[in-house]
Automatic annotation (TrEMBL):
<dbReference type="InterPro" id="IPR011109">
    <property type="entry name" value="DNA_bind_recombinase_dom"/>
</dbReference>
<dbReference type="InterPro" id="IPR038109">
    <property type="entry name" value="DNA_bind_recomb_sf"/>
</dbReference>
<dbReference type="InterPro" id="IPR050639">
    <property type="entry name" value="SSR_resolvase"/>
</dbReference>
<dbReference type="InterPro" id="IPR025827">
    <property type="entry name" value="Zn_ribbon_recom_dom"/>
</dbReference>
<feature type="domain" description="Resolvase/invertase-type recombinase catalytic">
    <location>
        <begin position="22"/>
        <end position="174"/>
    </location>
</feature>
<feature type="coiled-coil region">
    <location>
        <begin position="464"/>
        <end position="494"/>
    </location>
</feature>
<dbReference type="Pfam" id="PF07508">
    <property type="entry name" value="Recombinase"/>
</dbReference>
<protein>
    <submittedName>
        <fullName>Site-specific DNA recombinase</fullName>
    </submittedName>
</protein>
<dbReference type="GO" id="GO:0003677">
    <property type="term" value="F:DNA binding"/>
</dbReference>
<dbReference type="InterPro" id="IPR036162">
    <property type="entry name" value="Resolvase-like_N_sf"/>
</dbReference>
<dbReference type="Pfam" id="PF13408">
    <property type="entry name" value="Zn_ribbon_recom"/>
</dbReference>
<dbReference type="GO" id="GO:0000150">
    <property type="term" value="F:DNA strand exchange activity"/>
</dbReference>
<feature type="domain" description="Recombinase">
    <location>
        <begin position="182"/>
        <end position="326"/>
    </location>
</feature>
<dbReference type="Pfam" id="PF00239">
    <property type="entry name" value="Resolvase"/>
</dbReference>
<dbReference type="InterPro" id="IPR006119">
    <property type="entry name" value="Resolv_N"/>
</dbReference>
<keyword id="KW-0175">Coiled coil</keyword>
Length: 559
C-alpha cells in the first residue's frame, strides 16, 4: 500500500484559500415532481448538489434556486431569472448544477451562457456529474461541454417528438389525453383516457345548452350560474381533489365567466365524440401555442356517452354562426378604432383588466367604454362596484394629466439646472471624484499587501497564526473599501443619470410638450397602468415614477 507523504498532507491542510465563492445551487425538473424516490426527483438533485457544495472549502452556499415543472428548452423560468438577477447584483459568483442538462437543453443559449455571459460576469460554473468546472477546465473540456449541450438539445427534441407521436396516436384512437375531463364528464378510474358522465355536473351542462337554445347570452348564463351558487369548473375540480397541486383557485377561476360557457357550447365532445388537437405548440422548435382550424381537429365518433345529441348541437351551432355573422355585419357598419389602452386599464377592486366594449347605436354613432368583467358577469355577487368608463373621458383625463406632468417637468428641470450650477454642488461632486480616485488607490494597495502577506507566509517569514490575523484585517479593510467605492459610484450615477437632463422622466415628458392626440406607442412608452376605482375614478400610473420621486426630493430638499 502506498504511503501518503506527511509533508504534502500538512501542506494541503495549511494551504490558504484565496477566494470563497458565494454559491448558488440551481435545480430543475421538467415534469412536476410526484414525490417519488427516483434519481431525478427535485429532492435527490438538491441533496446531491448540497453535499457537493458543503464539501468544497472554497464555496459558501448563498441560496438554492428551484424550477420544478419547467422545461429546459428555454430559460423563461422564474427561479432561474431570480438567480441571474442575483448574479448581476454581484450576490453570486458561482453556480452549481447536477449536470448540464439541468441548466438547459437548448445548446445555443446554454453555450452562450457558458462561453459569453458567465466569463463576462466572472461567474464560476460547475456541472457535477459532467466534471465541468470553468475554474479548472481546459479548452478541450469546453469542447466536451459544447458537445454535451448539443446532445442534451437533441435528446430534448427526440423526447418531445416521441411524446408528440404517442399523444397524436392516442388522439387518433379516441383516447382523451387532456389533464382534466370537460365539465360534465369525469375520467374513468379504470381507464383514465376514457370519459364517463359526471352525475353531478352533467345536468348543469344540459341546462347550459337549454338556456343557449332559448337565446340567452353567454354572460347572462354565467351570471345565472353564479347566482344559483353553482361552483365554477375550477372550484368544482378543486373540491373533488382533481388537482395535483392543492392550490385554491383564485381570481376569475372562482366564478363562472362567459368565456367558460362559450367553451362548453362550442365543444363537440359533449355529443359523445371526443374532439382534440385544437392547438399546436413546440417548445423545442420555438413554436408558440397556436389555434388550429376546426377542419384540422381530430374527431373520433362514438367514444363515450353524449350529454347533448349531435343534431341539436349542430343546429345550435348554425344558429350561433348566423347570429355572429349578423352581428359582425352590423358592427362593420360603424367605424372601428384601435384599442390603444389594451391591457392597461385595471379594476381597482378585483385587480383584473377591464374590457373595452363597443356600444353601437342606431344613430350610427359608436361609443367605446371600459367595463369591469367581474361586475358584468356577477352584478350583485361581485365585490366590484359598477364601472363604465367612456374612452373619450379617459383620453381627456390622460391629456389633462399629461399637461400637468409636462409643466412639472420643465419646472423641475429649471430648478435642477440652477441647483447644479451652485458652488456647493460643484464642490460636492468634485469631492466625490477625488474620493473615488483615492479609494481605488487604497484598494490597489490593499491587494498588494495581501499578495505580499501570502508570500511572507509561504517563505516562512511569518507563522500561520500571524498570517490569518493579518489576512482577516486586510479582508475586512478590503470589504470596507469596496463598500465605500460602491457608495461613491452610486453618487456619480445618481448625478449623471437621475439628477441631470438625462433623467428618464425628464427625457420622456420633455418630448410630449406638443402631444394632443394619444397613440398606442405613447401609451406603451409613458403609462404603466390605469386604475379605475369607485364609479369611474381614474388613477394614471406614469412610467419613470421612481426617477421623478428622486428628482423631486432632490430639488425640494435642496431648495
Amino acid at each position: 500500500m502506498a504511503r501518503v507523504s506527511r509533508k504534502n498532507k500538512a501542506q494541503a491542510i495549511l494551504e490558504p484559500i484565496e477566494h470563497v465563492y458565494n454559491t448558488a445551487i440551481y435545480i430543475r425538473l421538467s415534469i412536476e415532481d410526484s414525490g417519488t424516490n427516483s434519481s431525478e426527483t427535485i429532492e435527490t438533485q438538491q441533496y446531491m448538489v448540497e453535499q457537493f457544495v458543503n464539501a468544497q472549502k472554497d464555496m459558501k452556499l448563498y441560496s438554492l434556486y428551484q424550477d420544478n415543472g419547467f422545461t429546459g428548452t428555454n430559460f423563461q423560468r422564474p427561479a432561474f431569472e431570480q438567480m441571474m438577477d442575483d448574479v448581476r447584483d454581484r450576490k453570486i459568483d458561482c453556480i452549481v448544477v447536477k449536470d448540464l442538462s439541468r441548466f438547459g437543453r437548448n445548446y445555443i443559449e446554454t453555450g452562450y451562457y457558458l462561453e459569453k455571459i458567465f466569463p463576462f460576469l466572472n461567474v464560476r460554473f460547475v456541472a457535477i456529474t459532467d466534471n465541468y468546472d470553468t475554474l479548472k477546465n481546459s479548452s478541450s473540456d469546453d469542447m466536451v461541454a459544447s458537445l454535451k449541450n448539443i446532445v442534451n438539445s437533441l435528446v430534448a427534441k427526440d423526447i418531445s417528438h416521441k411524446s408528440a407521436t404517442v399523444l397524436h396516436q392516442k388522439q387518433q384512437n379516441g383516447e382523451y389525453i387532456g389533464a382534466f375531463a370537460p365539465y360534465g364528464y369525469m375520467k374513468n378510474p379504470d381507464k383514465k383516457n376514457h370519459l364517463m358522465i359526471d352525475p353531478v355536473t352533467a345536468p348543469i351542462v344540459k341546462e347550459i345548452f337549454k338556456w343557449k337554445i332559448e337565446g340567452i347570452g353567454y354572460i347572462l348564463i354565467a351570471r345565472k350560474l353564479n347566482e344559483m351558487g353553482i361552483p365554477s369548473p375550477s372550484v368544482y375540480n378543486y373540491q373533488n381533489s382533481r388537482y395535483k397541486a392543492k392550490k385554491i383557485p383564485t381570481g376569475k377561476a372562482t366564478m363562472w365567466q362567459g368565456q367558460m360557457v362559450k367553451q362548453i357550447i362550442n365543444n363537440f365532445t359533449y355529443t359523445g365524440n371526443v374532439t382534440q388537437g385544437k392547438t399546436v405548440e413546440s417548445l423545442c422548435n420555438g413554436l408558440p401555442l397556436t389555434k388550429k382550424d376546426k377542419k384540422q381537429y381530430i374527431v373520433v365518433y362514438g367514444t363515450h356517452e353524449a350529454i347533448i345529441d349531435e343534431a341539436t348541437f349542430r343546429r345550435l351551432g348554425n344558429t350561433i354562426d348566423e347570429v355572429a355573422k349578423k352581428r359582425k355585419a352590423n358592427s362593420e357598419k360603424y367605424p372601428f378604432t384601435e384599442n390603444i389602452f389594451k391591457g392597461k386599464v385595471f379594476c381597482d377592486e378585483c385587480g383584473q383588466k377591464m374590457i373595452r366594449y363597443k356600444n353601437a347605436k342606431k344613430s350610427a354613432k359608436t361609443r367605446y367604454v371600459f367595463l369591469c368583467n367581474q361586475y358584468a358577469h356577477n352584478l350583485q355577487l361581485s365585490k366590484c362596484s359598477k364601472k363604465c368608463l367612456g374612452e373619450p373621458e379617459l383620453i381627456n383625463a390622460i391629456l389633462l394629466s399629461l399637461r400637468a406632468q409636462v409643466e412639472l417637468t420643465f419646472s423641475l428641470e429649471d430648478k435642477l439646472k440652477k441647483l447644479k450650477s451652485t458652488k456647493k454642488y460643484i464642490a460636492k461632486q468634485k469631492k466625490i471624484k477625488t474620493d473615488l480616485v483615492n479609494t481605488e488607490k487604497l484598494i490597489t494597495k490593499n491587494l498588494l499587501l495581501c499578495t505580499a502577506l501570502f508570500e511572507n507566509y509561504t517563505d516562512g517569514t511569518i507563522q500561520l497564526v500571524e498570517y490569518n490575523r493579518l489576512k482577516s484585517d486586510y479582508l475586512k479593510q478590503a470589504e470596507e473599501l469596496e463598500e465605500a467605492k460602491n457608495r461613491l459610484l452610486k453618487a456619480q450615477v445618481l448625478d449623471g443619470k437621475i439628477l441631470s437632463p438625462q433623467n428618464e422622466w425628464i427625457k420622456a415628458f420633455r418630448g410630449q410638450k406638443d402631444t394632443t392626440v394619444l397613440s398606442r406607442e405613447f401609451i406603451e412608452l409613458m403609462i404603466d397602468k390605469i386604475i379605475v376605482s369607485g364609479y369611474n375614478d381614474v388613477e394614471i400610473v406614469w412610467k419613470f415614477a421612481d426617477e421623478l420621486a428622486i428628482l423631486t426630493e432632490f430639488v425640494g430638499g435642496a431648495a
